[in-house]
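User: Let's play a game. I give you a shape written as tokens, and you guess the letters that built it. Ready? Here's round one.
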């Protein structure tokens, strides 16, 4: 047995692809955010989401800090006559945030408690580092990584 390498069981994961029980937000999140100014039209927000194949856009302040978030859910709820002429700020919600080092299971708890499918990942100074979504969590569950 000495000198033999033992492969980890699928449930254990590894340092490169941890299981859900051991994963951190940093293991699943998408680094960076796609943003737009608060006065962007909903048409622009929809174009950003469709072009980048993302389900959330961060409305940023002049200093680049996050102000609010629009997910596909808010965009869907606002769809209707004249929606494309409204501004993004009119449907944006306050972001639910989490830090990069928190356990992914904590991210799942927060999503369920808050009724959201996306969390804004921030540093200690509350600067946006990325987004973790329910789909990112599914990637960890399915393959041990996102």
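Assistant: Ready! My guess for every position:
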């Amino acid at each position: 047995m000495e000198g033999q390498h033992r492969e980890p069981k699928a449930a254990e994961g590894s340092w490169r692809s941890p299981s859900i029980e051991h994963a951190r937000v940093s293991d699943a999140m998408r680094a960076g955010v796609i943003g737009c100014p608060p006065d962007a039209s909903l048409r622009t927000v929809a174009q950003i989401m469709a072009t980048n194949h993302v389900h959330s856009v961060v409305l940023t302040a002049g200093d680049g800090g996050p102000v609010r978030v629009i997910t596909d859910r808010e965009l869907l709820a606002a769809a209707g006559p004249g929606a494309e002429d409204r501004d993004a700020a009119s449907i944006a919600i306050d972001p639910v945030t989490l830090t990069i080092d928190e356990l992914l299971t904590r991210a799942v708890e927060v999503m369920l408690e808050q009724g959201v499918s996306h969390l804004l990942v921030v540093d200690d100074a509350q600067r946006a580092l990325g987004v973790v979504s329910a789909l990112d969590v599914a990637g960890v569950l399915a393959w041990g990584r996102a």
